[in-house]
Amino acid sequence: MNKPVYFSFPDTPVARVFHQIRTTASDRTLLQRQLGYSQASITRHVASLMEAGLVEEVSAANQEESRTGRPRITLGIDGGHLTAWGAHVGVSSTEIVVCDVGGRIIRQRRLPLATKKLAPEDHLRTVSHELERLSVGLPQPVDVGIAFSSHVNHHGFVDSSEYGWHDINVCSLLSEIFNRSVSVSTGVLAMAGAEISDTPLAADRREAPLLPSTLYFYAREIVNHAWIFNGVVHRPHSGKAPSIYRPETPSHASPLSVSGIIDEATAQGLRTSSFADLVRHSQHCTPIKELFRARAEALGDAVAAAVEFVDPEVVVFAGEAFTLDPDTLRVTVSRVRHTAHPGAQLRIHNAGRNILQRAASQVALSRFRNDPLLFS
């Protein structure tokens, strides 16, 4: 039975060599120093990756024209002949991508698909069909990966009021639709996993963690978080959203999602088509401004509570709730600073749409990066 993917640093020697070449401008000598393998092992693994078309030699002459002597030969990622398909399924839209195994996005498209308007099977079949259309003329994928805004539990089920899906076994359903094994993950876990995939390795695994302990918050259609600890993204067991993400204001406002605040504004008689539009209205509409304020305080309390319990070194804020509404970000940061541990480093992630595309490609490439020669 398929289960959601697990994001961590690679374990096998050849996967670690591939990871290091992706994340550094290494040559064979540097790889030996960085990873602690023998020169013979490095030579063997690099040769295997080059034979599979995944790694190539790159002359540094163009970047070092002013230097004399023999140009340094570094190793770079190739893999343009292999593709992977990815999707990020949100409440109101889905991002689909085709990328190569070097992680470069070749094609992309946004699908205006609302989860509540289609049965889960019909929704995911549409995603499959659109990925087929998007990849016309390209090689068949070595793997397929689907990320969901909603929590996905450890058995691969989605149970989400925002989606309108009840106990849907997305792992099994996707395998049936695509007629192959499909990688599945919660989107915010994939976003955190991207931090790991971009971080170089160290030779001694007993050293201090390669990444600081990090709490990663994503707030858009659904509020969600991920925790990176000692180079591993924690995978939740139940997949249930914490109750603190579903508070009620005195006016019985909807949960903290973007769609929730749009629904509440609509109930108050304001017509709006997007969150960005609603943020603009909030600047001169007192009832909407108060709605945003209450939501920002509740979101700040939720983040602060998590930070206080986990005590991470870094807190990352991502998603439209933070990036499009500076007031919400200010209130949330203030709550964290005053009620949680003040020593944590706070960061804002301004990737916009690219963050969803990156999550989709991260899930699509997760199994390949753990065993590149198996899939090539």
TrEMBL record:
InterPro entries: ATPase_NBD, ROK, WH-like_DNA-bd_sf, WH_DNA-bd_sf. Coiled coil: none annotated. SUPFAM superfamilies: Actin-like ATPase domain, Winged helix' DNA-binding domain. PANTHER family: BIFUNCTIONAL UDP-N-ACETYLGLUCOSAMINE 2-EPIMERASE_N-ACETYLMANNOSAMINE KINASE, ROK (REPRESSOR, ORF, KINASE) FAMILY. Belongs to the ROK (NagC/XylR) family. This is Uncharacterized protein.
